[in-house]
Design brief:
By secondary structure, the chain is mainly alpha-helical. Helices cover 71% and strands 0% of the residues. Among the domains are: 137 residues, Alpha Horseshoe (Serine Threonine Protein Phosphatase 5, Tetratricopeptide repeat), CATH 1.25.40; 86 residues, Serine Threonine Protein Phosphatase 5, Tetratricopeptide repeat (Alpha Horseshoe), CATH 1.25.40. Helix 4 runs antiparallel to helix 5 and helix 20 runs antiparallel to helix 21. The longest helix has 15 residues. The protein is elongated. It starts with a helix and ends in a 14-residue tail after the last helix. The chain binds one DNA strand through helix 3, helix 5, helix 7, helix 9 and helix 11. GO terms for molecular function: RNA binding. This is Pentatricopeptide repeat-containing protein.
DNA sequence: GTAGGGTTAG
């Protein structure tokens, strides 16, 4: 008896056998039945399911239509193709047309309805379930998991209690459902109530806990897993999930501890050990990803080199690691070396070159890529936008639509930034219209809209978007609006909004303070500016960047406090850049402080010898003061340095 | 042919 019991346990843990239930007997019956199927029909059925598996649905349908003999399996296979594609109407049509239905037909159509979004479909699925004459445990599991996946736990639990024989699959579905709703306690309780847990029980619980940020609970459960768990010898997937979860939070050390806990058995001659709980390729990939996420490319590479078995994901992770640290040479080396690059590999390389400013290579790879997808288009469009080749971005955007690729929120967000860069309000409004037609504007999209409108001079439209966001705002939203006000010289509005933000206890970022300081400059508030500058450091622990110093210099210089501004420049821990000297020079012009102007202009000329602006400014100042000798000296210097005066241009589109 | 779950790109 004992060996038989052991064999049963082994089968169970491999998901071949579960709780005793009708479906097992039924599936055995259908196996024997398939032997009676005429060979031609049997092969045609196999062909249909193969075509569906590789995603060639229309070919499968053509074959289905051409068959002069079909059995229930034929109809069911065809139906499953539509169910997978969420084409529920077509699946339903087959269901209604088929001459004979078995339990699988019913289960299929019900699962189809439950995997469609919208309560309409769920009700229809439920109606069919209620109409069933005979149900097996798959029917129950389908409906329970259907409710759970849609977050409707009340109905799921009711059915769970009503089912004739509870089984581990439905319990697992409940766990997933609870965690989808963030109900950690109920999930853990359901888990504890399962008499014999399998590996999917652990996976469902651990992955849900990780998604809810409950890493400590997950680790505890994983370590206390006990006797009576069929899944306990196959916990590697759950370990992998938690490793990845730690990686997401940057907790590399915890991840490494877990990784080291998984045995790395390799039998003699490098053969894989019989033991099932051992590191697999996903464990290595996940651990590598942790290092990649924290920018520790050396440790990631170390693991990569130690791996005896690599899959596409391994290569892609390593490539994306090099992309992140801008080592495109190594990234493309791996890309060439890897056995069969997939869409993800191509896209990593494309976005890598895009982000690192090599648009030519990005487009080269993009054009050579065999099956471009939405992400490929988005990567290359974002690259053009980031590198300020706005017209190139727009060209790609229209090209993409000509080729039948539908833009999504990522595309549209990039295109909005393009409109902002081009200062093209007309185009921006068109894109806004387009957006409302095809996606629900979410936070990132709304944020891009605010930036676009304010950069294009339509501050009122920016306000409308901002106010429509009501409760759903993040720091970026606030930064965009405050920055918009500051950009338009509406200093007091910007400061007022900043106060509201502080009252709501939203933590500002360094970007917020760039806008706040700019607002102070525009509003002529010297004391307020100094106060905000030190509040940034003291109250919020934000280290001032050179942009903040530039703003502070701007604030002081505009008010004619040029000596104070110069003191700031001398005391700051950065080498003053164009913006800093530019701010000083701007103040000098307004207040006719020629001695400071000379200092600032000379510094600017050293930084950018080809720019005519500082020469012109200095020349005009001397001229205004009647110091014609000095003015002439500037003009000669300009000629000597071969600088041409550029014709002015306005950057505001009418 | 139907039910529960792990890693990578914009």
């Amino acid at each position: 008896m004992a060996p038989l019991y052991g064999a049963l346990r082994k089968l169970r843990s491999r998901n071949i056998l579960q709780f005793p239930c009708i479906s097992c007997c039924r599936s055995l019956a259908s196996v024997t039945k398939s032997h009676k199927t005429p060979p031609l029909l049997y092969h045609a059925n196999k062909k249909i399911s193969h075509l569906i598996r590789i995603g060639r649905l229309s070919e499968a349908r053509a074959l289905f239509d051409s068959m002069n003999q079909r059995n229930t399996v034929t109809w069911n296979s065809m139906m499953s193709g539509y169910v997978h594609r969420r084409e529920i109407a077509k699946a339903r049509q087959l269901f209604d047309e088929m001459p004979q239905r078995d339990i699988v037909s019913w289960n299929l159509i019900i699962s189809g309805y439950f995997s469609c979004r919208g309560s309409r479909y769920i009700e229809e699925g439920r109606k069919l379930f209620d109409e069933m004459q005979e149900r097996d445990c798959v029917s129950w599991n389908t409906v329970i998991s259907g409710y759970a996946k849609n977050g409707r736990m009340k109905e799921a639990l009711k059915l769970f209690d009503a089912m004739p024989e509870p089984n581990v699959v439905s319990s697992n579905a409940l766990i997933t459902g609870f965690l989808l709703n963030g109900d950690v306690d109920s999930a853990v309780e359901s888990f504890r109530r399962i008499p014999v847990r399998d590996s999917a029980s652990f996976n469902a619980l651990i992955s849900g806990l990780v998604r809810n940020g409950e890493l400590n609970v997950a680790a505890k459960i994983l370590h206390e897993c006990g006797e009576g768990d069929d899944g306990k010898d196959d916990l590697v997937a759950a370990y992998n999930t938690l490793i990845a979860g730690y990686g997401q939070k940057g907790m590399v050390e915890e991840a490494r501890c877990l990784f080291d806990e998984i045995p790395d058995y390799q039998g003699e001659d490098g053969n894989k050990s019989e033991r099932r709980f051992r590191r697999n390729v996903v464990s290595w990939n996940s651990m590598m990803m942790c290092y990649v996420k924290t920018g520790d490319i050396v440790s990631a590479r170390e693991l990569f080199d130690r791996m005896t078995e690599r899959d596409t994901c391994t290569w892609n992770t390593m490539i994306s690691g090099y992309v992140q640290v801008s080592d495109m040479e190594e990234a493309s080396k791996l890309f060439i070396e890897m056995p069969s690059p997939d869409a993800l590999s191509w896209n990593s390389i494309i976005s890598g070159y895009s982000q690192n400013g090599d648009l030519g290579l990005a487009k080269d790879f993009f054009l050579r890529m065999p099956n471009k997808n939405l992400i490929s288009w988005n990567s290359v469009i974002a690259g053009y936008e980031k590198n300020e080749d706005y017209n190139g971005a727009i060209e790609l955007f229209s090209q993409m639509q000509l080729e039948g690729e539908r833009p999504d929120r990522h595309t549209l967000s990039s295109v909005l930034s393009v409109c902002a860069g081009l200062v093209d309000l007309y185009l921006g409004k068109q894109i806004h219209q387009f957006i409302t037609k095809i996606v629900l504007p979410d936070m990132p999209i709304n944020n891009s809209l605010i930036t676009m409108y304010s950069r294009c001079g339509a501050i009122a439209d920016a306000c409308i978007v901002f106010n429509e966001m009501k409760l759903y705002k993040d720091v970026i939203t606030w930064n965009a609006m405050i920055g918009g006000y500051a950009f338009h010289g509406l200093g007091s509005e910007a400061l007022e909004l900043f106060k509201v933000m502080q009252r709501l206890k939203i933590h500002p970022t360094y970007i917020t303070f760039i806008s706040v300081l700019n607002a102070c400059a525009h509003a002529g508030l010297v004391e307020e500016g100094r106060r905000q500058f030190s509040s940034m450091i003291k109250d919020y622990g934000i280290k001032p960047r050179i942009e903040h110093f530039a703003s502070l210099v701007d604030i002081l210089a505009r008010q004619g406090q040029l000596q104070e501004a110069l003191d700031v420049i001398k005391s700051m821990p950065f080498k003053p850049d164009k913006a800093v000297w530019g701010a000083l020079l701007g103040g000098c012009r307004v207040h006719n402080k020629v001695e400071f102007a000379q200092l600032a202009a000379e510094a600017l000329i050293r930084l950018e010898p080809e720019s005519s602006a500082p020469y012109v400014l200095l020349y005009n100042m001397y001229a205004n003061l009647g110091q014609w000798d000095d003015a002439e000296r500037v003009r000669v210097l300009m000629e000597k340095n071969n600088v041409k005066k550029q014709t002015g241009y306005s950057w505001v589109d009418s």
